[in-house]
User: What shape does this take?
Amino acid sequence: MPATGAFAQTAAAAGGSAPVLMVLGDSLSAEYGIVRGTGWVPLLEQRLKERKIDYRVVNASISGDTTSGGRSRLPALLKQHQPKLVIVELGANDALRGLALNMTEDNLNEIVSSSKRAGAQVVVVGMQIPPNYGRDYTQRFKDLFGKVADKQKVPLVPFLLEGVAQQPAMFQADRLHPVSAAQPTILENVWPTLAPLLTKK
Assistant: This one.
């Protein structure tokens, strides 16, 4: 349900001189299956306004997107929005499709590098997958986000769904996408890593 392209355009149209914080993500950031305005990205935007932190949030997340998709979309997004801060929340769909992890890692490295070359600070968001994908694949997938963050010298959110993944009631019927009630917890997982960067413009 990739409706967030329209959301990004609306946010951009709202415009102004405030620096842009762009979220490049998949369904976990695109409010898949939940009421618009209840996802962690709109909650982040609300928090910034409440605390008078002068950033304009652009949600460039698309449900179903992979790291390859994000990599291909990124140059146009960087040109259009000129973000000062990019949150990279991609990779879960790579794993769900069983894609080669070296490709995922390469894509994430290029996404981060391209964002940095464009003058943006970057936050990498870590993900994990259930153990039924096999112990080796599961562990290597978990580790690759830290490897990218270390190589690129950027901050890491260890696990986007910490405190949510362990609670079945926090998920929609598909057992993949968190419900609205889980979104504040997701924001709290991102906030400690993101907050120190918001004063560095």
